[in-house]
Amino acid sequence: MTTQPAPQLTFRAIALAIVLAMVLAAANTYLGLFAGMTIASAIPAAVVSMAVLRVLGGGGMLENNIVQTGASAGSSIASGVIFTIPALVILGFWQDFEYAWVLTIAGLGGILGVLFSVPLRRALVVEQNLAFPEGQAAAEVLKTGENPAAGLRILGGSAFGGAFAKLAAASGLKLIPDTAAAAGFAGPYIAYYGTNLSPALLGVGYIVGLNVGIVSLAGAMISWNIAIPVYAAHFLSFDPDLAGAAANLSAEELAGFLWSKRIRYLGVGALLVGGIWTLISLRHSLASGVRSGLAAARASAAGVVVAHTDQDLSMKAVLIGIVLFTLPLWALYQTIVGSLAVSLPMTIIMVVAGFLFCSVSAYMAGLVGSSNNPVSGITIATILFAAVVLLGLMGPDSAVGPVAAIMIGAVVCCAACIAGDNLQDLKCGYVIGATPWRQQVMLAIGAASSALVMAPVLNLLSKAYGIGVPTAEHPDPLLAPQATLMASVAKGIFGGSLPWGMIGIGVLLGIAIIIVDESLKARGSTFRTPVLAVAIGIYLPLDLMVPIFLGGLLAHLAERHLRRTGVPQEQLEHRNRKGILFAAGMITGEALMGIGIAVPIVTSGSADVLALPAALHFGGFAGLLVLGVLAWWLYRTAVAADKV
């Protein structure tokens, strides 16, 4: 006889999740277009759910988990859309965002992401037991809601610290900047170093640990402390157009300019190799996950009782769903290109790339978290491959070739974003004893609900501020950095202007990193160099990797301190939970405050609506001091003697 779980997929949980998903999708759409990043919303949604359902009467841990699962789709769908779909306006294919098309791409792409990721749960969450930092953090938040004594004090204090740091930063009061950086010229070379001042990144680093923090920072240093200085000193002069555009820039501006125009493509090459190698490495686990899913389906059909914590959507339902939800996308592709010989390969590429890159996205979400998952790199890889195939099918003079490549990439990007989010939510459910299929259904509902609001929000922002391309009406538009890059990649394939040399060097770098990692594995080393973690560092700005490294270092130092003081192994688990809970609080506080700040920004139409007078703006040192205080607080909480 099996124990029945507490209520999960209730009507009120579904309704609240839908509302939160739509709100979070709208807020993250603006922030993503404005700042190039979105806020992971599972933890804020869990906090809101606990508060709302408690007012309504009750609301257990599993019911709150359903709410955060559905609501978290809002930020994921927003990411998938803003990384790609604005490229269609930037390319001039659309004058505004067409509702039916955006709904089809975002909604069906998100649902396919859920379906593609169903067989990955056993492989990544159960068998490999990856960290999935936001999933663990959300689980700690939900546990605290059940037993809010000491744990709630830790969560509340750290959430306040994270919220204060976000409010004080550049998108809020402007008391402190978002980053602290130092740069200068050493002869012909650029010397640059900087760190983001985000407490959430520090918390993510604490959860993922020191190994991932080290290799991610090492990848960033390859780009910013080796490749950029060497390129500036020895290769920039061979590109007159680029050199002219870079003239008179400061050292910090030049470093950022070269990274965006050339050096980040090293990361694209490394991500391509890393994605392929990850699929090769995971082939047995993925196959095992599919076999486990099929076996569970057969066992259920035969009347064998399966624990509710191991019940996924059936493989039959998954396969039928993939076919049904792919057909409208094929019809959309056919509408664009008007040729079955092109639309059918487009659909096949979309399905194959969707499953492969959903696997990569889910794996990377388990490694470094959804907030730092390089989905834009995955999408670039998809668009590159799709554009090359379409180039052969349609020719270099095709006007819709870049558009078709973006359409493929948009579906894959939405699917990959949702896949990473799905596995984070399933990790949370695994920790607290939820039923997987209920979470999978809720996430699909959340994805479809979020897609309903995307086109109206995009059109509103486009009319108010402009997107991507400066015009006479909107000389300072929302930059949409990822979508701008996607447009240049797709157009570059047909126009021949991509930096293929950089991509090729990145491929070689990726191969070298794999060789090092396999050598360490053969020696039995506990330290590893996973290629995608290094490639993330190469592809993303250096300042994002520094706080992740510092968070991992704090986790290592806390554990070493406890071992040196003779704390028994069972007590280490209690202390580790306190550190994770504090890290979860910082992520929660910053995310909630980021969403709160978005409201007056969108309402007023001014990014400076909350800014205090310039006389009260402090420099990077003040920001470092705030982050340092939070780091010290995190460490002291993790090593303190009391238990949660």
Summarize the structure.
This protein is mainly alpha-helical and 644 residues long. It has a domain of 361 residues. Helix content is 74%, strand content 2%.
Description:
By secondary structure, this protein is mainly α. It has a domain at 11-150 and 280-500. It is 74% helix and 2% strand. It has 25 helices and 2 strands. It has helices at residues 11-35, 42-56, 61-71, 73-82, 86-90, 99-117, 120-127, 133-146, 150-168, 199-208, 210-234, 240-246, 251-281, 283-301, 315-337, 340-368, 375-394, 401-432, 436-465, 481-495, 500-522, 531-539, 542-564, 569-604, 620-639; strands at 179-186, 189-196. A two-stranded antiparallel ribbon has the order 1-2. The longest helix has 36 residues, at 569-604.
Strand order of the largest sheet: 1-2
Helix fraction, binned, reads over 70%
Number of β-strand runs: 2
Rg, rounded, reads 24 Å
For the terminal residues, how far apart are their CA atoms?
32 Å
Structural class: mainly alpha
Strand content: under 5%
Mean pLDDT: 84
Uncertain runs are none
Number of DSSP helical runs: 25
Biggest sheet architecture: 2 strands, antiparallel
List the helices and strands and how they pair.
Elements: H1 11-35, H2 42-56, H3 61-71, H4 73-82, H5 86-90, H6 99-117, H7 120-127, H8 133-146, H9 150-168, E1 179-186, E2 189-196, H10 199-208, H11 210-234, H12 240-246, H13 251-281, H14 283-301, H15 315-337, H16 340-368, H17 375-394, H18 401-432, H19 436-465, H20 481-495, H21 500-522, H22 531-539, H23 542-564, H24 569-604, H25 620-639
Antiparallel strand pairs: 1-2
Helix pairs in contact: 1-3, 1-4, 1-19, 1-24, 2-3, 2-8, 3-8, 3-18, 3-19, 4-6, 4-18, 4-19, 6-15, 6-16, 6-18, 6-19, 7-14, 7-18, 8-18, 8-24, 9-24, 9-25, 10-23, 10-24, 11-13, 11-22, 11-23, 13-17, 13-21, 13-22, 15-16, 16-17, 16-18, 17-18, 17-20, 18-19, 18-20, 21-22, 23-24, 23-25, ...
